[in-house]
Automatic annotation (TrEMBL):
Organism: Streptomyces blastmyceticus
Quaternary assembly: Heterotetramer of two alpha and two beta subunits.
Full protein name: Succinate--CoA ligase [ADP-forming] subunit alpha
Organism lineage: Bacteria, Bacillati, Actinomycetota, Actinomycetes, Kitasatosporales
Top-level taxon of the source organism: Bacteria
Catalytic machinery residues: H251
């Protein structure tokens, strides 16, 4: 089992013919992802050879879906054009859009998030500014390294890309059902809560690891959800205990004002919901091991 992405997922890449898209399409194919096409209106009708695998290029997401049955798109389109690319995916009603692009204007992210809602949320958006998601041994949609872990029983949801990779590496001997990087921008599609609900419903996920960071109240809301709805053990980590107040740190959403959004406030909210929270990523991995062996 897995959440959102399986070996049967048929993946297209918007922006596949750009340098970043080419690089990561090659890596995704190496991880076994079933990539059935790319999208670039200017190069429609051509194909790209990835070490012997010919991937056709289509003029639109709708055409790619019609010709291939694609049900996932990974977006590597530059920030200025990303909103149009995501809106195109939503109009085509593709079930999952993974928006990797960093630096999209918050106004644009808010616009396509609201547009997806106005269309009935037929397209799940992951991101933007995220590493994507991976179901080890099955499929990889994004930029998460595919060789740092194996299939297993842990579900991971994280705001941070690099901490996603570290946690996967630290628990590589146990392995993961799926790992989802949701991104740390102020406006994102899929949230901690969405992933927690999916992992709770997945019979092959035994433990959930949740990584948050300072800024906003997403972790506090996730804590309320865990308390009311999650029966599986959850282990957490919140990045940013040493961040100075009032300063934006790393992600655009990671800004603290007063006590709101601090790592300590988030840690306390999660612990009140029964989540064991580590002070470092390594301590969090140790707590996960202890919870699984309990």
């Amino acid at each position: 089992m897995a959440i959102f992405l399986t070996k049967d997922s048929k993946v297209i890449v918007q922006g596949m013919t750009g340098a970043t898209g080419m690089k990561h399409t090659k890596l995704m194919l190496a991880d076994g992802t079933n990539i059935v096409g790319g999208v670039n209106p200017r190069k429609a009708g051509t194909s790209v050879d990835f070490d012997g695998t010919e991937v056709p290029v289509f003029g639109s997401v709708a055409e790619a879906m019609e010709k291939t049955g694609a049900n996932v798109t990974v977006v590597f389109v530059p920030p200025a054009f990303a909103k149009a690319a995501v809106v195109e995916a939503i109009d085509a009603e593709i079930p999952l859009a993974v928006v990797i692009t960093e630096g999209i204007a918050v106004h644009d992210s808010a616009a396509f998030w609201a547009y997806a809602g106005s269309k009935g949320n037929k397209t799940r958006i992951i991101g933007p500014n995220c590493p994507g998601l991976i179901t080890p041994g099955q499929s990889n949609a994004g930029i998460i390294p595919g060789d740092i872990t194996k299939p297993g029983r842990i579900g991971l949801v994280s705001k941070s890309g690099t901490l996603t990779y570290q946690m996967m590496y630290e628990l590589r001997d146990i392995g993961f059902s799926s790992a989802v990087g949701i991104g740390g921008d102020p406006v994102i599609g899929t949230t901690h809560i969405d992933a927690l609900a999916a992992f709770e419903a997945d019979p092959e996920t035994d433990l959930i690891v949740m990584i948050g960071e300072i800024g906003g109240d997403a972790e506090e809301r996730a804590a309320d959800f865990i308390k009311a709805n999650v029966t599986k053990p959850v282990v957490g980590y919140v990045a940013g205990f040493t961040a100075p107040e009032g300063k934006t740190m790393g992600h655009a959403g990671a800004i603290v004002s007063g006590s709101s959004g601090t790592a300590q406030a988030k840690k306390e909210a999660l612990e009140a919901a029964g989540v064991k929270v580590g002070k470092t990523p390594s301590e969090t991995a140790l707590l996960a091991r202890e919870a699984l062996s309990a």
